Amino acid sequence: MKLHSTVTTGLLSITSYESGHIVVNGRSLTKSFLLTPQQLVENWPPASVDQLTGPDLLAVAALDCPIVLLGTGAHQRFPSRALLLPLIERRIGVEVMDSHAACRTYNILMAEGRNVAAALIIEHRG
Predict the structure, then answer these.
(1) For the chain, which residues make up each domain, given as ranges?
(2) For each successive 10 residues of the chain (126 residues), what is the average pLDDT?
(3) Quick one: which of 18, 58, 89, 119 is 20 to 30 A from 33 by CA?
(4) Which is it for strands 33-35 and 27-29: parallel, antiparallel or unpaired?
(5) What's the distance, Cα to Cα, between the start and end of the chain in Å?
């Protein structure tokens, strides 16, 4: 799905997404990644929610954003509370949704000038 852009000059936004890839500022990404309006961290390790680890979430916490959108792939799947502790302990709000919903929500919050991070899992079905 192609997303319509708003005025976000100089910021990183999601310009489109489909199964197996997400496009950030015209760059197609096929592996999970972390995104803030100012920073793109490519090749974030988890390829599914089942592969999500504590260190993966520490990398999200290190982005220092008060709001995190955790895109869990094609379907919304909630990780355990224990796994989310690195974010909860830092009083970071976590919203869990499927990755495409997280893309849309990220763009809205980013366009509003919010300090938001998206942790997006891109699943590959084989």
Answers:
(1) 14-120
(2) 58 94 96 98 96 96 97 96 93 97 97 97 82
(3) 89
(4) unpaired
(5) 22
